[in-house]
Write a structure and sequence with these properties.
YaeB-like fold; 2 helices
């Protein structure tokens, strides 16, 4: 099943903190992989219960599946991405 990808406005701020090469790599993988297999990645627990994560090297993409859409909520380094509220 193919999903359409949407981004929360805060993702733009998250991506500005990264290098251009990292940003392109993450966005390319998100567009390719999440649009096809979004429902196969792990579901989170705790304060992020119900959301899912996608791993791109040391970076994590936190997203939610809403019917036929994937809403990307946060992108960040694995040590920081789970510390803030979404």
């Amino acid at each position: 099943m193919a999903y359409s990808i949407a981004y929360k406005k805060s993702v733009q701020r998250d991506l500005k903190k990264l290098s251009k090469a990292e940003t392109h790599r993450i966005l390319n993988q998100v567009e390719e992989e999440l649009s096809k297999n979004a429902d196969t990645y792990p579901v989170l627990k705790g304060q992020f219960a119900g959301l899912r994560k996608y791993r791109v090297g040391d970076y994590r993409v936190i997203y939610a599946i809403l019917e036929d859409d994937v809403l990307v909520l946060r992108v960040g380094h694995r040590k920081d991405v789970y510390k803030k509220e979404i």
